[in-house]
Structure formats: structure tokens, C-alpha cells
Q: What sequence folds into this?
């Protein structure tokens, strides 16, 4: 299957590292013009340098904006007025005692993980529907379904994204625009390494720490290892393609079998 996104412009939020950077790389390899987003101009520049080292002929647009805020969303739109593909990847996570999470922290997780995606969807979806083609995706998590006791505020925000995704898919019904959520399982990123070491012995080498984390904290995983960012990106690139035209309103799992369900 050849996935050709030539002529399409894609915005991936929070894409200077981790899953976002892997998604941008995958979309660029498929021929899309890609917008790399981050809050820091230095980080965006570095990410673009790394991307073009991998894909020398990549068409890249820097979008320096803190999209977790209303002003940041406006800044992003000024830099990229049109997008054919929107991947709402930006997210924060961390462990916390459920009874100690403050009101401000609950609001922060909702603002960053949910409302930022809603704002950009409102901004870009009308243009997609007018043109009769578009792709909107939300990077959700197994935590949306299997709420972790150590980060229920994060789980709540990812559950909300599933509802947001399904709702906007209905708003785009019959227009040629698809809207989907990608349920990512436990994934190997720098941030996740820090998170793992919050929960296991910091003196353990990484390979042992990962195994201990999966054994104790994510025993449901059928993969029995952390997922690599490229494995999430592969699904996102497919869902961004013309070949995925009949997949919409879905929550597609790339979770290593973590969610104990025989239906999507």
C-alpha cells in the first residue's frame, strides 16, 4: 500500500519530540507538507533540522505557538491559516495522588489535553468541509478506558477526547472529512522514561525498569513492552490517507492489546 499525501498540509501539535515528532516524520515521508509545532522557537528549529536530515526534500512550516491558550491558537492560525490534516497530539501527563489533585491542576489537564484540540478543530474543520476533504485526529490513550489510579486527571482528559472525536465526526458527516481518535498504548518516549522512574527503582537500568513497570503497572499489555513512537505514527499516517476514507467516528487502538476488549 502506497500512502501518498502529496499536496496536503498537516499540522501536528506538540511535535518537537516524542510521538508528535514521529508523526511529523511519517507524514513527511508520505509527501505531506508538515507544520512542526512547539512553544520554543529553538526547539522547533532543532526538530525541523532533525526532520530534514531524515527527509531532505521535506516541505516544513514552523509553527511556534503555545496552543494550550486562546492566544496561542490564534498565533498558530496566523502562521498556518489552512490545514488539510490536523493531528491533535499535544498532551501532558504525570502521576499524582487522586485525593491531592487541586482544582487548578484538573483545569490545566482539561485546558491542555482537551480544549486546545477543540479550539483547533473549530478553526480548521470548516475549511476542510468546504473543500470536501480533510482529516482530524486526536491522540488519545488506553488511559481513556483503563483509568490509572495514579493519574485519573490524565485519564479523564483522554476519555473526554473520545467524546470530542465522535462528536466532531458527526458534525462532519457526509462532507468527505473524517474524524478519528487513536488510542495509544504505553509508549516509549523521554517523558515516559521519567514517568516510569517515578514508579520504579531509579537505580534500575532502563531495560529492567521498563520490564518492572510493565509487570507491575501495566500487566494487561499483550505486547509486554512499551510501544515505539513510530508504531503510533504508522496508524496516524494511514488514517490521514485517502485509503482510510471509510474510517470515521472511530477510536482506533494502537495499544499493544492493553485494553481488554474484543471490540474497537
A:
Amino acid at each position: 500500500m502506497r500512502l501518498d499525501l502529496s499536496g496536503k498540509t498537516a499540522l501536528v501539535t506538540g511535535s518537537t519530540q516524542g510521538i508528535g515528532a514521529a508523526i511529523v516524520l511519517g507524514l513527511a515521508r508520505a509527501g505531506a507538507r508538515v507544520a512542526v509545532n512547539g512553544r520554543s522557537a529553538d526547539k522547533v528549529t532543532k526538530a525541523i533540522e532533525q526532520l530534514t536530515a531524515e527527509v531532505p526534500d521535506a516541505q516544513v512550516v514552523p509553527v511556534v505557538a503555545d496552543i494550550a491558550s486562546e492566544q496561542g491558537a490564534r498565533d498558530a492560525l496566523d502562521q498556518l491559516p489552512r490545514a488539510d490534516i490536523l493531528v491533535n497530539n499535544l498532551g501532558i501527563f504525570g502521576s499524582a495522588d487522586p485525593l491531592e489533585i487541586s482544582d487548578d491542576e484538573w483545569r490545566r489537564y482539561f485546558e491542555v489535553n482537551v480544549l486546545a484540540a477543540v479550539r483547533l478543530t473549530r478553526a480548521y474543520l470548516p475549511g476542510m468541509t468546504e473543500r470536501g476533504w480533510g482529516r482530524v485526529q486526536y491522540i488519545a490513550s488506553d488511559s481513556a478506558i483503563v483509568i490509572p489510579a495514579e493519574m485519573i486527571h490524565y485519564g479523564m482528559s483522554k476519555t473526554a477526547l473520545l467524546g470530542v472525536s465522535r462528536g466532531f465526526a458527526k458534525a462532519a458527516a457526509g462532507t468527505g472529512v473524517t474524524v478519528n481518535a487513536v488510542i495509544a498504548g504505553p509508549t516509549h518516549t523521554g517523558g515516559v522514561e521519567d514517568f516510569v522512574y517515578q514508579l520504579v527503582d531509579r537505580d534500575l537500568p532502563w531495560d529492567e525498569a521498563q520490564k518492572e513497570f510493565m509487570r507491575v503497572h501495566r500487566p494487561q499489555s499483550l505486547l509486554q513492552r512499551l510501544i515505539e513512537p513510530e508504531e503510533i505514527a504508522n496508524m496516524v499516517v494511514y488514517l490521514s490517507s485517502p485509503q482510510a476514507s471509510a474510517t470515521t467516528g472511530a477510536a482506533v487502538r494502537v495499544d499493544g492489546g492493553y485494553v481488554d476488549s474484543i471490540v474497537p
